Amino acid sequence: MTKVGIMVMGIALAAAGARAAGAVDILYGCSNNMTGKVRKLQVNGPPACNSTETLRTWDQYGPQEERPGFTECHVEIFAASCDANTFAVLDTSCAAGFATGASAIWMSPFGGADNGNFYFWARSGNLWTTISYNNTAAQHTFDVQLQCCS
């Protein structure tokens, strides 16, 4: 079962626990026709979906129809550097799959150092832009991790 499926099942089971024993709750969500991303999760009542979305339903036993979306995710790592007391811009995209999330960590002078902030933007298609700010007096390296799903 995918991470999305586990999350949806967890929400459905939590909602089911809040109702009387024996009652079956239905979880509704709007699924983007292009990406499969689900939004507007509601219990026991369908949300208003956009024209570019499909209404999907689940109960505590699983999906009531085949769910579209990602079946596998992996992490791709990109290394970069940032000069002292300045910003660096790094554009990244997945070699395999579609980028669904991003994170970053300073790698020097040691992994997890507090050298400054990171800012992320999901751009068009598969492109993510990361801007780092190095607030130290030396150049440092950082890694950007993309969650790539297909």
How does this structure look, described?
The protein has 150 residues and is mainly beta. The chain has 2 domains: 3-63, no CATH class; 73-149, no CATH class. 10% of the residues lie in helices and 48% in strands. Strands 2-1-3-4 form a 4-stranded antiparallel sheet, covered by helices on one side. It has a 3-stranded antiparallel sheet with strand order 5-10-7, with no helix packed on it. A 3-stranded antiparallel sheet has the order 6-9-8, with no helix packed on it. β1 and β2 form a beta hairpin.
Poorly predicted runs are: 4-13
How many domain regions? 2
Q: What is the radius of gyration?
A: 20 Å
- Strand arrangement, largest sheet? 2-1-3-4
| Amount of helix | 10-25%
Largest sheet: 4 strands, antiparallel
Q: Helix/strand/pairing class, anyone?
A: mainly beta
The general outline is elongated
Please count the beta strands (DSSP E, at least 2 residues each).
10
What is the count of DSSP helices, taking H or I runs of 4+ residues? 1
Task: Give the ordered list of helices and strands.
Answer: HEEEEEEEEEE
Estimated share of beta-strand residues: over 45%
The overall pLDDT, averaged over residues, is: 80
Distance between the termini: 14 Å
Blueprint of the fold:
Layout: H1 3-17, E1 26-32, E2 38-43, E3 53-59, E4 62-63, E5 73-82, E6 86-93, E7 98-106, E8 118-122, E9 127-134, E10 140-149
Antiparallel strand pairs: 1-2, 1-3, 3-4, 5-10, 6-9, 7-10, 8-9
List keywords for this structure.
single chain; 150 residues; mainly beta; 2 domains; 4-stranded antiparallel beta sheet; 3-stranded antiparallel beta sheet; 10% helix; elongated
